[in-house]
Amino acid sequence: MIINVSNLSKSFGDRLLFEKANLLVEKGDIIGLIGANGTGKTTLFHLITGAEEPDDGAVIRSPFTTLGYLEQHVCADSDRTTYEETLLVFSHLFEMEAELEQLREALSGEHAGDPALIARQEEVLSAYEAGDGLTYKNLTRAVLTGLGFTDEEQGLPVRSLSGGQKSKIGLAKLLLQKPDLMLLDEPTNHLDIASVDWLENFILSSSITTIVISHDRYFLNRVCNRIAEISLRKLYVTDGNYDRHMALKAERDLNSRDDGTASGTSARRRANRNRSTASRRTSKNRSMSGMISRSSLTRTASAGKKSSMQTPFQWSFRAKSSTRM
Questions:
Q1: Are 85 and 78 in contact (CB under 8 A)?
Q2: Among residues 6, 39, 108, 288, which is most buried (max CB within 10 A)?
Q3: What's the longest Cα–Cα distance across the chain?
């Protein structure tokens, strides 16, 4: 278990957003969180992070689960370049580098051969290497490139960037953080088609447990293994992608309304259409997945030695553990 949302209820004043919501998130889940605007999707994220308190119920999180949310990486104006700003997610490695340099100087001078300093050097170096200390700069370049930043844009000061570009820096930081649970709120905004394709492949290949708010059904169909929808103040959860969820939703609506009247007949027809559409889209998605894979291979081959974009999917970096909510 990564988190367990148990009988959660939340309202603002007299307005009830949802009640008795339940969602068990297991390791490796990629869950699409959907619903009309104003139904409480972002509020549910805030309840998961602890930024807000529920009216009733609880969010139970494994005590060693690290959590990453895009709002934690809001990018403020600064004179740092895009690349330098993104590197800040590895600030703990900067501290290790400084200590390793101090130890090197000490062992090269009057403290040469000091057993305690040698042991400390080995300890810090081991942690540095385990935390991607040897590759984090290349990883940062790869993620920025994958999200659509050119080499020139990576060298621009943050204060000169557009709001969309700053949002992409925040997304890059979150992806590099590689938490146990990643909360993404409309991550495909400000991304072109190639960058969305790269992000889909990153999410599918990274094994990071993810909950993503999105209105992009093609994105949800490609990456999600479960869908959670806030509707009529309830949280409905189904296994499968967006199309399967909508087909099951139509059947649920049919069962609740089918009383032999015209409305029941109409609901039945919609359910049949949705089942047929879901089946066609599933076949089409299988075909498209093959096309995308071939396209990706073609882009990779043409990129030659620029294949560093394809490497971030084997990372072993872990962020600092957070406390139980």
A1: yes
A2: 39
A3: 93
